[in-house]
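Render this sequence as a predicted structure.
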Amino acid sequence: MWLGKFLDIEKDLKSLTSEIRKQFKEAMKREKLTPLEFTILESLFNRRISGYYLIEKLNKHFAGTWEAQSGTVYPILSKLKKAGFIDSKEIRTPIGPLKKVYFLTKAGEDIIKCKVNENYLDQLKFIENFLIELSTIYIHSFLNIETNKELSREKVKEVQDLLNQITENVIRNLPTDMLFKQKCSECDNEFDRDGATYCSYCGAPLFNVDKKDNLL
């Protein structure tokens, strides 16, 4: 959903420290991200996950409108790492071989925060306009308001209920309980204090997590 005009990061690079900015300048040949690159950076925000789970997360994000595949995602990860936005490390898990996980660098995290902070309200308005236009076309795509007004009213009510449910889901899933979250000591995956024994991403035991150091 990110519009191209929001993905120019030349101004954002200037907000970084001179040391980090120098690292970016040495690695980057351009100062703009593609929508997919930015979506991948968003998916890595505040977590460390493998390429496999990243692909799963992207497919959930796009909800069938586009399918993420390893042949597309891994080259982008390599490009973003070379540019200094992300880094990776191999971790050993008790239920499998070494696993490579990806995560944002300090500079990559700062870029994401700055870009979202600057454009949050504009993006919300864009999404609002998109939902209105999409829903209007959806209603009119199979209804003839002039000949079946009752059915039209029912369809409008159905769409209104669906949009209300979507709004409720967004509000319900906001991280309002961040102080009650912890991170896996191996991969930084977030989890609730629900008695889980192993991390769902890397399989590392959670009972060794330092609660004090891993609070968000």
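Summary. Confidence is low (pLDDT under 50) at residues 208-216. The chain has seven helices and five strands.
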